[in-house]
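Provenance and format

Records in this collection were gathered into a single text stream. Each protein contributes a sequence line and a C-alpha cell line. The two records reproduced below are adjacent in the stream.
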Amino acid sequence: MIESDVYVMEGSLLPFQEAGIPFETYPVAYDLLNWGEDERMLVITTGTVWGAVHFRAEELASEPPLDLISWEEMQEVSVNFRSDNVKLLDLEETQKETFPDVSLISNPGLYRVRVYAVGRHSGIDMQQVGEHLDERYLMQLWGESKARPSTPVQTIGDRN
C-alpha cells in the first residue's frame, strides 16, 4: 500500500509509469483515469492545477466491493503492466525525492484499476502537504484474467 500527500503541478496529472521506460509525449487526458495508447503510462487527471492532493493505492487479491458512499467519482480501466516496477511519478520528474519509491504492484500482468476521487470539482488550488486536503484519491489494483472495457467516469455517492 502507498499513502501519501503529493504535489501536482501544471498539467494536473499524476502519471503511473512502468519505471525505467521513457515517454516522449504525454497522453491526452480527458477522463479521471487514462491509460496511454502505447501502454506505458497510466494517468490520473486531477482537479487541482497547483498544490497537494492525497493519494492512496492498494493492490488487492481480488475485486473489492464498490464503495458508493465515500467518494464522488470513480472509473475503471484494464491495464497490462509488463514490469512489476510501476511507480508514481510527476510529469517533469522533478519530485523524485517526495514521491514514494515503492511499486504499486507486486507482479507484472493484467490488472483492473479502479480510481475513486473526491474534491476534484472543489476549485481549491495551492493546498500544501500536511493540510487537510480537499482533493483525495484511492486507487485499487487487482489481477484479472481477461481485459474488460474501460468504464466512463461515474458520479457516485451522496455528498450533499
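Adjacent record:
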Amino acid sequence: MRKFANLLLVTLFIAPLCFISCSNGKVKSLNPNGDSELALLMRSMYDDGMLTKQALLEGKAPVVNVKYHQLHTAKATEPEKVATPNYDAFANAYEASVKSFLESDTASRIESYHSMVNACMNCHQKICPGPTVRIKHLFLNETELASLESQKE
C-alpha cells in the first residue's frame, strides 16, 4: 500500500511537469495560414471598439487607440479583396467616421459611435462577411441605450 501511495505521489508531481515542459508557450494563430497584418489590425480595432463601448456605458470619455489609418497599408490575408476601389471607399468612410466620433460632443457621441460601427459593418457585409457576427457585439443594444438615457436624467 505504501508503494502505491509513493507511486501515486510521484506521478501526481511529475505528470504536470511533463505537460508544462512540453508546452512551447506560443499563442496559436486563429488562421492556419498565419494572421495577416490586416486581420491583426481588425482584431485590435474590435478590442478597441469594445473598450470604447464600455467607456460610453460608464459615462467616460472614450479614446480610440488603434491605428485605423493602417487600413490602407496593412497586408491582407486575401490581397485581391482589398485591392479594389470599393475597399478604399469603405476604409475612407471608416476613417471619416472615427474622426467624426472623436470630434463629437457628448450629445451626439452615441450616434457617432453607431455610425463608426456601421462603417465596419458596411464594409464587412460587402467584402468579408465572416466578422459581422462579432461586429454586431459592438452596437449598443436596447438595454444599454435605455441605461444611457436614464443616466442623462
